[in-house]
Amino acid sequence: MRQMHLVGFLQAQNCTNLASSWRHPESRTDFLSADYYQEIGRVLEAGKFDLGFFDDRLSMPDRYGSDHHHTIEHGIRCVKLDPVVVLTMMAAATRRLGLGSTASTTYFEPFHVARAFQTLDLMSEGRSAWNIVTSLNDGEAANMGHAEMMAHDARYDRADEFVEVVLGHWDSWEDDALIVDKSTGRFGDGDKVHRLDYRGRFLHSRGPFTVPRSPQGRPVMIQAGSSGRGKRFSARWAELVFVAYHDIASGQREYAEFKAMIAAAGRDPDHVKVATLCYPICAATKAEAEDRAALIETLPLEIDALSLLSEALNFDFATKGMDEPFSDAEMAGIQGLQAIRDRVVKNTGKKNPTVRDFITGSGRGRPRMDMVGGPKEVADKLEQWFTEGACDGFVISATHVPGSYSEFVQHVVPELQRRGIYRKDYSGPTLRDHLGLPRSTLGDWKPRLAAE
């Protein structure tokens, strides 16, 4: 029977992706400690999650009012640790849980990304994954020494080359290149380590690469592009895709369309898993879960939404009155997460929404309250999405830490296992095993180039 995939959506910061989560009375506040993240890892592994995944941005959300004061005062994602370093601490406390992190193709160098994630893959014995992002706002550009953000499609054009370089380096070492024979003094076979010598429009990289192959061959590739260009990028490269479908009917349609795009790119759609974002609020009973949801609804502030919208859309919402419509030029000029803009237009029915419309129509800074209940109620909804062809699994977001994950593992996971749609144990040691993906072989990505 087809099995559901589960991903823990993590942040190496003072809150989850929900900025108000740190205000929850049960949230741990020692987010600067290794034990904080290791405990999350242990909980997710107990629940047999495929992986814990760290989202990341290279700036705090200081676009609103062009100032960081409000970000610090209200704890709006203002602490951001290096997620790859944090993952090494989680790796030490777990044995099977996959370990994924974001790294930007816009501001990092491909050799560095290739080395960091392949090293993590070796240190975790084949459990790492790289989330490919192109970065989205001027704050990140300023922190990384650039005057402004690259145009949307140009970022993806550069990202295509970036991925080719990373994959090329990961293919540099053949599986049996190492010999390490002290008696003969021969360390490796020089004919089985290859130099890349890549020269593209945006990037050059020579090699040879310095990290050998890992138990799963190379890290798993994650992507979450939601624009037309982003979806084409995902269809070409990704092995695990994060989406945010908003209802089953549209999810079914978009899921089918995306799987068709994967096939058109010359790839096997079964080897690309699609996981949609959700905020399950669960407890032993529906009544208890509803009480939890009532508390959680009191935590977000209006400033959370304004700050996070400014960050995600790369537009300073402080420059407009709450009930002032966006002009056609302003709507067209949004270069951040355009899917948020499009969702607001759809949800409000307004071609030129106001700031207030953006807050209500996007839901930014607030959890969706569409999955609240006891084990049966939450499992029913997850099963419906999964069995009716709207996704391959779920990215589980947390309203507080570690309680959201602990409650889900305690109450919902056993119910999913009882129904036979979720694993009772890991099928193998690597992340590719968890996802049902074959071990990577040298050059297995190259037909994708021909498909273009």
From TrEMBL:
Alphabetically ordered keywords of this record: Flavoprotein, FMN, Monooxygenase, Oxidoreductase
Pfam families to which the protein is assigned, alphabetical: Bac_luciferase
CDD domains recorded: Nitrilotriacetate_monoxgenase (cd01095)
Annotated family: Belongs to the NtaA/SnaA/DszA monooxygenase family.
The protein, known as: LLM class flavin-dependent oxidoreductase
Keyword Flavoprotein: yes
Gene3D superfamilies hit by this protein: Luciferase-like domain (3.20.20.30)
GO MF entry, a single one: oxidoreductase activity
EC number: 1.-.-.-
InterPro entries: Diverse_substr_monoxygenases, Luciferase-like_dom, Luciferase-like_sf, NTA_MOA
Domain Luciferase-like, chain residue ranges per copy: 67-387
